[in-house]
Design a protein that fits this description.
- The chain is mainly alpha-helical.
- The chain has two domains: about 70 residues, Winged helix-like DNA-binding domain superfamily/Winged helix DNA-binding domain (Arc Repressor Mutant, subunit A), CATH 1.10.10.10; about 130 residues, GntR ligand-binding domain-like (Four Helix Bundle (Hemerythrin (Met), subunit A)).
- Helix content is about 65%, strand content about 5%.
- A three-stranded antiparallel β-sheet has the order 1-3-2.
- Helix 4 packs antiparallel against helix 7.
- The longest helix has 24 residues.
- The protein starts with a helix and ends in a 13-residue tail after the last helix.
Length: about 220
């Protein structure tokens, strides 16, 4: 395996393992273990782990290993506040521009979201798709990318919250708010749409976060 390819493979594998509950938040990741797992030298392992540190996913503890960075309650709150302002602001700005096709697409994604929860598959994927599609309708690609990055970090936060409860993958996301957001957009009722967006975000991982009420 080429060095660059090995680095990318190891990076993605470690991140996937974190998101799939294979590493508990207090787990220490070791270079040697990964080198043996991927049958490679420590050089691409070290580079992959350094990249994960640059992304603030891991923290290097010299002569010990790499620790998963814990995401604090305050960080989650700040991300959710940003998302409320970004998603809510774009909904408010583009309220009259939502087409029936846009709203039908959002409803279809929510139906897949509900199905994924029932079948215990990757429900987070459809949660992300719903909110990113909501942003895509606004036409602001920069904000859409920022929301995507925010949701990637929130997925890691969700994993850590579930580990703390000792119940990985047992939370059942609420999809009712999504449907009510779409219904309100259909009725061009921005106040109600914002209310359910705020509720959806503030109930992240069945906890309460103050996402603000500035719109």
């Amino acid at each position: 395996m080429q060095k660059g390819k090995a680095r990318e493979t190891i990076y993605n594998s470690v991140l996937e393992s974190i998101l799939n509950y294979e590493y508990a938040p207090e787990c220490i990741i070791n270079e040697g273990d990964l080198a043996r797992k991927f049958n490679c030298s420590k050089a691409p392992v070290r580079e992959a782990l350094a990249s994960l540190c640059d992304a603030k996913i891991l923290r290097n503890i010299p002569r010990y290993g790499y620790e998963i960075v814990r995401i604090s309650y305050e960080e989650v709150r700040d991300i959710l506040q940003f998302r409320y302002l970004a998603e809510g602001g774009m909904m408010k700005k583009n309220l009259q521009n939502y087409k029936d096709a846009d709203l039908d697409k959002l409803r279809n994604i929510n139906e897949q979201y509900i199905k994924s929860i029932v079948e215990k598959t990757d429900s987070w994927k459809f949660n992300c798709e719903f909110h990113l599609t909501l942003m895509a309708c606004s036409g602001n690609l920069h904000l859409q990318e920022l929301v995507k990055v925010s949701m990637e970090k929130l997925k890691r936060a969700c994993v850590q919250i579930e580990w703390a409860r000792r119940c990985p993958e047992e939370l059942s996301p609420d999809t009712v708010n999504h449907q009510k957001i779409v219904d309100a957009l259909q009725a061009r009722d921005i106040r109600t749409a914002l209310e359910f967006l705020r509720k959806d975000l503030s109930d992240f991982c069945e906890m309460h976060y103050d996402v603000g009420d500035w719109l």
